[in-house]
Automatic annotation (TrEMBL):
Main location: membrane
Keyword set includes Membrane: yes
Keyword line: Membrane, Transmembrane, Transmembrane helix
GO cellular component: membrane
Organism: Klebsiella aerogenes
Residues that span the membrane, as ranges: 26-46, 61-79, 91-118, 138-157, 169-191, 211-236, 302-321, 333-349
Membrane topology label: Multi-pass membrane protein
Intracellular or extracellular location(s): Membrane
Protein's recorded name: Polymerase
Keyword Transferase recorded: no
Start and end residues of each O-antigen ligase-related domain: 174-315
Lineage, opening ranks: Bacteria, Pseudomonadati, Pseudomonadota, Gammaproteobacteria, Enterobacterales
Length: 383
């Protein structure tokens, strides 16, 4: 197990012990998940699944719960915490984007191939980074697990961009860096989510007339950028790498995913109600030797491990956590549309990447619960 997960938990615990109200809220919100996981672990061990795998998958789920519940509890204790969390998340995601750009610049200046730099980082820091080169360019995929939360966070940065009137260049700079970060992931799912969440923020927060103006300016700017600058050909090559019919990497990846999904479905049919238990994996369809229970379609693999009943209970626990927070933040009113889209896209993201849980999954659940209150119009003067 990487050291980062324990450090996250220890950091949260050290902060919680200084605030009694925070501990109380954290325990109340996390307890249902813990009880569910205890039952799931006992069932999994009863199915004779490997202890390391059972605990490994349980840890990923529990980490997502602890991160989400901790952040939500902090917001409940103090509104200043809400503002601090937003600033911290934005600074973190922008910092990651800047590091990606620096890696890109270092590769161009030194001539060291980006895939080699990525392998250095992956081996030295034990950071999960996916690699995929872009034919005919110096570019390569720069993607880490935390990137899965960035498209969701862009919804709030877009809101800030709409509402901010002073020092707008700071927000624009952050917004551009986050877009570059998503572009460099070379993930079709992340690209689609980015477009969706930016569009949602404009649609729900800018109003029809202003949304039309923003869309018109965006189309004109993008067209000029693609057709009249050297960046255009580079962006087209990036897109062709992931959507081009001649890309062997795409074909192999898609065929592997289709085959793997069929294997997961067949295994799910064998035990559809209760599943095979946490930590279960298909011996001839492993994605990784170190974490054999992780699959590209993690959403489907959860049906295989927890069955319909277990998956439904776990999902409803997340839904209840989110909508209870939304209900409290809006004085007894439920705003359903945007958080429902967030939840659907969270499940969708987990169907193409093994990033449903962990710290990134916890951040996504937190963002879902705070769709209407993480960034407020009045914050434009403070942030």
């Amino acid at each position: 197990m990487a050291l980062r997960s324990p450090l996250i938990l220890v950091s949260m615990f050290c902060y919680m012990i200084s605030t009694r109200d925070l501990i109380k809220k954290f325990v109340i919100n996390a307890l249902p998940f813990c009880l569910f996981l205890v039952a799931a672990i006992l069932y999994s061990l009863g199915n004779l699944n490997a202890v390391d795998n059972v605990l490994g998958e349980s840890r990923d789920i529990l980490l997502s719960v602890f991160v989400a519940v901790f952040l939500l509890s902090c917001c409940d204790v103090s509104d200043d915490n809400r503002k601090l969390i937003y600033k911290t998340l934005k600074a973190t995601f922008v910092f990651i984007a800047i590091v990606k750009v620096l890696i890109l610049i270092f590769s161009v200046v030194t001539g060291v191939p980006m895939p080699l730099i990525i392998s250095w980082i992956r081996d030295s820091w034990n950071i999960q980074m996916m690699s995929l080169g872009v034919e005919g360019t110096f570019l390569a995929r720069l993607q880490i697990p935390l990137d899965s939360a960035v498209p969701f966070f862009l919804y709030f940065v877009t809101k800030e961009l709409i509402f901010t009137t002073e020092k707008k260049y700071r927000v624009i700079t952050a917004f551009v860096f986050l877009l570059i970060s998503m572009l460099l992931t070379l993930s079709r799912a992340f690209w689609a989510e980015t477009i969706l969440f930016v569009g949602l923020a404009i649609l729900f927060e800018a109003g029809i007339i202003r949304a039309f103006r923003i869309a018109l300016v965006s189309v004109i700017t993008t067209t000029l950028l693609l057709l009249l600058t050297p960046l255009g050909s580079l962006i087209f090559k990036l897109i062709d790498t992931r959507f081009g019919k001649t890309s062997m990497a795409n074909s192999a990846s898609d065929l592997e995913r289709v085959w793997q999904n069929q294997m997961l479905y067949n295994s799910f049919i064998d035990s559809p109600v209760f599943g095979h238990g946490l930590g279960y994996f298909i011996p001839n369809a492993m994605r990784s030797i170190t974490t054999p229970y992780l699959y590209e379609s993690q959403s489907l693999s959860m049906l295989m491990t927890l069955g319909v009943l277990g998956t439904l209970v776990l999902f409803l626990l997340y839904v209840f956590l989110c909508f209870k927070t939304i209900y409290n933040d809006n004085n007894g009113r439920l705003k359903i549309i945007v958080p429902a889209i967030f939840l659907v896209m969270w499940v969708f993201s987990g169907s193409v990447n093994p990033l449903l849980f962990g710290a990134s999954g916890g951040v996504i659940i937190f963002l879902t619960a705070k769709t209407s209150s993480l960034y407020k119009r009045d914050d434009a003067q403070d942030l």
